[in-house]
Amino acid sequence: MAEELFAGLSYEQVVQKYYQTVASVCVMHIKSRHDAEDCFQNTFLKLYQKSPDFNSESHLKAWLIRVAMNECANLRRKNRFTVSLTYVDSDDAISFPDNDSDDISWALVQLEPKYRDVLYLKYCEQYKSHEIAEILGKSDNTVRTLIKRGKEKLKKIYGGDDDE
Amino acid sequence: MNKKNFNSIQNFSVPQNWIDNAVNIPKTAKKKPPVIFVNFSKTLVAVASLVLVCCISLVVFFMNNNNAVPSVLVIETKGTSGVFETDEHTQHNSENNSSTQGTSKTENIKDASSALTKPTSDTDTQMPTLPVEPTEKPIIEPSEGSSLPTESGDDLPLAPMPTDGMVEPSEGYWPVDPTNPEVPGIPPTENRDDEYVAIVVPKSKLTQNCKVYCLTYFNGELCSSSDLFSSQNETEITFISSSLLHVKYYPFKKGVIATQGVYYFYFYNENYELVAQESRIYR
């Protein structure tokens, strides 16, 4: 049986090419390493099981990001009334250093998810506002507003000035 | 001034086992079939059972419709023994209730008068054959010129039996004063056409036309028509319930009873199958 292709890539090639992107989305949303891994694996599991048709690699990448975000949201929703003991364990928790004055990843993870997503897509994945709107299923104006407010909130968190 | 960045997130060091596990997903996981096939078996069973239930319901419905009311139906109303025929069953259905009730009322009035001269079915079924002697003794009056016989007068000629004024005991087994036939529930002794032999049979024993014929035997000989389907052997059927029938046979009306004695009545359906048998003593 011929191997199925995703936008011209085999499944393994997709994993090798986009694992970093998917992992970044997961660790940005989930503070537990094990839970983040679950979301990471579920994202690729859905890719394999559903095997959707992709127009291009950008389409594939956007789909993976969207699915990873949804998986994280589902996990958060499922665990909203429970606190994992492993989360208390420092070995399992994902932490970002705050001693680097330029790396403000630690501040990003403290934002609300709706701001976190748009800022991540804009500054980490370099998407434009209309592309972010397409990925998140929101209007362009909404995304612009979210970016603007998210930046303000982020600055309040890390105590920065107007520079990015 | 340095630009802010998210390097820690972007360059998160992904454990190798995450990547290996993700790569190995095709080896461990099975592809989900399309949604329509996921629950195919359950859906198939559900649809099949639904169709089966519908078919059974339709069959039962139509069978009930076919067996609900036969073409000829006689309904006996309780208490008054009122009888009204519904030969035109479909016509009755189409008529409104008031007209139907009116018909039955007139028939009930008609039968209420006949109820005075006809034993009720309950009486007949509960004590059908026991003959009862009339309670009134015959009145014997000596005729003119006759003399009373003496008990010990052997040499004396026996006086002739008086015949005038002597009243014969009434025929039949009803303890009734024949001079007062108006007493309710007691039939007159002269006209016995309304006397009948009744049996209760389950409807399942009968054919679709629900017809029963009666052959009458006396002293081992057939005393009714040898043709089973002749009018002399016809019975009257009334419904007790949907499964039980009340079959009546009028031997006097049919001219079967000629002399005193024990009569045997054999009830047959249209297929010459014996449905029930009954015996009566007639005096």
Short summary:
The complex is a heterodimer of chains A (164) and B (283). Chain A has 164 residues and is mainly alpha-helical. Chain A contains eight helices and two strands; from the N terminus they run E-E-H-H-H-H-H-H-H-H.
> From the structure provided, what is the oligomeric state, counting identical versus distinct chains?
heterodimer
- Write down the overall mean pLDDT of chain A: 86
Note the beta-strand portion of chain A.
Answer: under 5%
Sketch the topology of chain A as an H/E string, one letter per element.
EEHHHHHHHH
Helical percentage of chain A = 55-70%
Explain how this protein is built.
The complex is a heterodimer of chains A (164) and B (283). With 164 residues, chain A is an all-alpha fold. Chain A folds into 2 domains: 1-95, RNA polymerase sigma factor, region 2, helix turn helix motif (Rna Polymerase Sigma Factor, Chain: A, Orthogonal Bundle), CATH 1.10.1740; 98-159, Winged helix-like DNA-binding domain superfamily/Winged helix DNA-binding domain (Arc Repressor Mutant, subunit A). Helices cover 64% and strands 2% of the residues of chain A. Chain A has 8 helices and 2 strands; from the N terminus they run E-E-H-H-H-H-H-H-H-H. Chain A has a two-stranded antiparallel sheet with strand order 1-2. In chain A, strand 1 (5-6) and strand 2 form a beta hairpin. In chain A, helix 1 (11-29) runs antiparallel to helix 2 and helix 2 (33-50) crosses helix 3 (57-78). By secondary structure, chain B is an alpha+beta fold. Among the domains of chain B are: 9-68, no CATH class; 196-283, Sandwich (Immunoglobulin-like), CATH 2.60.40. Chain B contains 8 helices and 9 strands. Chain B has helices at 7-10, 16-23, 25-28, 35-38, 40-67, 89-94, 97-115, 121-126, and strands spanning 74-76, 83-85, 197-202, 212-218, 221-222, 236-239, 244-249, 261-269, 274-282. Chain B has a 4-stranded antiparallel sheet, with no helix packed on it. In chain B, a hairpin with a 2-residue loop joins strand 4 (212-218) and strand 5. Chain B is rod-shaped. Chain B starts with 6 loop residues before the first helix and ends with a strand. In chain B, 13% of the residues are buried. Mean pLDDT of chain B is 68; it is low at 70-154, 167-172 and 181-186. Chain A binds chain B through residues 11-12, 15-16, 19-20, 23-24, 27-28, 37, 40-41, 44-45, 48-51, 96-97, 100-106, 108-109, 120, 123-124, 158, 160-161, 163-164, and chain B through 1-12, 14-15, 18-19, 21-23, 25-26, 29, 31-32.
